Structure formats: C-alpha cells, structure tokens
Amino acid sequence: MSAMPWHAEHWSRLQARRARDAMPHALLLCGPVGLGKRDFMRRFAQGLLCTQAQDGMACGQCRSCQLFAAGTHPDFATLSFGLRKDGVQRSEIVVDQIRELSARLAMSSQFGGWQIVCIDPADAMNAAAANALLKTLEEPSPQTLLLLVADAPWRLPQTIRSRCQRIEFHLPPREDALAWLQQQGVADASAALDAAGGNPGLARAWVQEGALARRQEVRKDLGALAAGRGEAMEVARRWLDNEPGQRLWFAAQAVADEVKGRAAAGTGPLASQLDTEALDQWYMAANRTRESLRGPLRGDLLLLELLARWR
Fold it and tell me: Please, are residues 40 and 71 in contact by the beta-carbon 8 Å criterion?
C-alpha cells in the first residue's frame, strides 16, 4: 500500500493528533472514487495497531502487522454488505450489523491497544442502522476508533457526519496528477486524466480496463444518432451491456465539449441539432440517468428515453 502524494497533508495532520494523544473517536473518509481513501484507511489503521510503527507507518514485520495483512487481526474489523438469510448479498448495511459492531467495541482490545472498526461503504447504512450507530458515536469507549468510508457522504444523516472528524479527499492539481500517472507508467496520461474528469486514480484504472476506447465509442454513437444514423434502441442495448454508468459519464462529457465547441467556433464535435439550452438539459438528464441506474428502474428503458431525447 504505497501512499499517493495527495495523501501527505491528511497523513501529517492525523499523525500530529496522534502524537498529542488527541485522536478523534470517529473519522469520516470521503471523496470521489479513485483517490485512494481506502488504501489510506488501511495504512492508517495498520500503523495504529503496529507495535513498531515509525511516523505512523507500520513496520510490516511485527505480529500485529502479520495478522493485519492476513485479515485476522482481532482488534480490526471491516463492516460491509452482509448476506441475507437466502444467501444473497444485501445492498445496504442493516441495524443488526451495527448492533454487533457496538457489542464488539464494548469489549477490551485483545492486544491492549486500539480497537478499530471500518464501515465501508458507510453511506450504504439504512436509516435504522444509522440511528443505531449514533449511540456508539455519542458514547465512545476509550481507545476505540470508527473509520467511516463514503463515496457519497451526503447520503449519511447530518447527525452522523457532525460526530465524525471529516477527512475529505479532493482532486489534486492537474500537474501533480499527470506526474503521478506518468510515474505509474500510464500511457496517454493527459487523455486519460481528461476522461476521468481530473481524477488520477480513476484515470489509471480506466486505462487498465480499456475505457478510453469506450469513450470514443460513446462519442461515435452520439455523433451517428445526431446525424440520423443508427438506432437508439441498439445503442441503448450496447451501453447497458458494458459499463452503462461509465458510458453515461462519457456521454455527459461529450455534450459538455459540444457546448464548449459551439461557444468557441460556432459548432461542436457531435454536430447535434439540439440548441444550447437543450444540450444543457440533456447533460443534466444523462447524470440523473446514471444515478437512476443504481435503483430498481429498468436500465434499458432509462437509456432509451435518454437517447430518444438526444435524437
């Protein structure tokens, strides 16, 4: 788990608090996917539990580190999606899981140090689970630490957010992101970073999975539909079969570029027949559709409706 350069300031602040014996009892690590907040969480937790840590960094050799690496450290646990009685994985964190967590934190540390529990994704707690967590947050046991990891912290109740020390991961400056991508050996780092909206971790992951080719496909699809070629239903089917959320991200980007192109040169790369106001509305609709794909509505109908509006 190597540190990403934009982690340094958060790391220094937490280590300073640890040195002052002023650690909070709950941390909320939040920000966009791809910025390494889960790696940060694990490095920090391992450093707290390590018996020979230096500047908060775990030694990797002691008994505590060996147990942590094996996923069997008795004083560290991660709470995530559990299984229902029928064996199907849940899509939310439920109240019984939080009650079990609270009971665990009420017990003494087996190694005589910190007892740490990570809830990930914390924004997947349902209302009953969040309410049950409040008591633990309001009455923390000594040397216990709750680590809440959330990609969408706004989904957490304000009562939860207000009781956590917030560590927010932001996109690094472009030059820093490009330098890191180049160090990681990412080809065409600039195009990848543009595709990922300035998010270097996402850019690296997307290059590894071939997302730049998918981005070009989306632009070709939109251009063809704008010219009256192709069928919206066939495009909707292809998008739904292969990373539909990512394709909608790329579609919204393409429309934003269309608007910029019109402002600069009077025409955009997609040659859409929609006016600028309609393009703005379609951009917002694409982002709403991306969110809606996580819900119970039929994805094919959502995409078909959106693409029909494009034509």
Answer: no
